[in-house]
């Protein structure tokens, strides 16, 4: 489907580093790019660099005082708890502004490439820092790069933008920024806020004219249930909204091995979601697709494979799940991390699901979550909530 795909990359993107004991280890993107290169995926895309976001660009989302606070922390490494820096989640470190602004700049570069027609699809795998708020860091996130990309596109005159977030955690920062803006449809599929940070993302959070959509899934939800929920909510809304550009966040912490959450997806189920979003980008947004990474804390077994599949999907050259990972990459993993790498690009699952057209089961917690969302927002879009 793809005509052109651009991967925004600079080795300095790995400088976003909260320290050796922090879950958000930059080695995850390093291993991703190494795997994508080893499998020839990067030969199918255009690699492009980026510049840090300027203060004017950061102010599209973030308050001036917050940006100045991040700069002060960046200069001396001293915490600023009012800015959310110096906590367990968001440790203060020297250079935090520069590292964060570069990630923001990478997502802005992806947005610019798609908007100006230099690429049909573009991705920043180091991005997806969706928890950052206008005046505070939150949930490992300092500057909210997906929100900045969307805000920049709005400044260029884009009239309708859809944002779909498949991270296991609610995309609360992006929702907050655009909650009252009907030009932006935010859709987040996440583990229920009753059991997981950040404690928001209930279906009743509907924004302006139904512009916020939240699918709060029960702990233990696996491939079939997650995909059933996705297809019951996302395609109908995107087809009705008809965005000019689709922006997606691809946290892969919904995987069963992720240590920070409780969903049970496989790499195969995640790959199916990427393929579905690719199809929807072409069906509903004229093929204009901007993607980012996001969460993901199983650094060797999950993140590199999931996001290599994502890059390959953007490139229009999906990887056969049975493909071996390659001895060169496995050697690099062992040298870099001391861990045993996965042997293939699959978890051996076949991500099948039943769609909602056959009816729903009110005793099933996944179906109850789906119907809560559909009842909350579908009528606001002129859609029938019943299957």
TrEMBL record:
UniProt keyword Ligase present: no
InterPro entries given in the database record: AcuC (IPR003085), HDACs (IPR000286), His_deacetylse_dom (IPR023801), His_deacetylse_dom_sf (IPR037138), Ureohydrolase_dom_sf (IPR023696)
Keywords on record: Acetoin catabolism
GO molecular function term, any single one: histone deacetylase activity
Pfam families found in the cross-reference section: Hist_deacetyl
Ranges where the Histone deacetylase domain occurs: 22-313
Top-rank lineage group of the source organism: Bacteria
Similarity comment text for this entry: Belongs to the histone deacetylase family.
Protein name per UniProt: Acetoin utilization protein AcuC
